[in-house]
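Run Peptidase through structure prediction, thanks.
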Amino acid sequence: MANNQMELNFPKGGVFLVIIAVAAIILFSKSTVTIGPGEGGVIFETLGDGINTDKSYGEGFHIVAPWNKMIVRKIRQQSISDEMNVLSVNGLEVKVNGTIWYKPEFENLGLLIKTKGEDYERELLDPAINAAARSVVGRYTPEQLYSSKRDVIEQEILDEVQTVLKDQYLIVKRVLVEDVKLPPTIRTAIETKLKQEQESLEYEFRLAKAKKEAERQKIDAEGKAIANKILSASLTDKILQEKGIEATLELSKSPNSKVVLIGSGKSGMPIILGNQ
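Sure, done. The structure for Peptidase is below.
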């Protein structure tokens, strides 16, 4: 009994075409890069001069040569926070907690990475922040750092950081000093002093308010006295008698009164009797 054998017949060169197709797929997958939202990229040319500083790539799908590499970095605004030990103007050590907002220049991303490396925050930003913080904080006393100078210090640190990073392809937007930690004894002394100053200001305010009220009452009393003096001087006996007669006549017209004139009162004023 003869055995039937099935033979698979591939087209001539079929295996070679499959190999080429698989290789093409692999090369294509390695040659495509998708840059996400808020990111940018630069090409590292393996067979060339390294980082290509002529062009930065934005969000979206990109094709690069398989022997090259796309370096992708965030280009949107970012923030880093740090705690620094610095000295005040009188040599007291304080801890400053701060946050800084920054972003790389998109059009110069290649130059930034080429000159400072991919970890440019550690290489460039951290030293600038620490140097600026030490320089600025060293101008103030602990009391100024703790209370009234916070916004001024933030602006001065920002100005110094921006000066240091000028032409370094890194933009610093804002500096926030979140907390200044002093030794407990110094902090307690400052808080006590501030409380006493506040109480003193409140006491001075109450005194000033009471003084103004006394002055107001004095002026009011003087005004009334002058008005009464003028009124008394203008009311002669004849005027008073005429006013009295007018009032008596008006009263006599009341339907509820029976008018009886008998003689006259003092100063010649009539007397009304018989009210019902």
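The CA atoms of residues 146 and 187 lie 8 Å apart.
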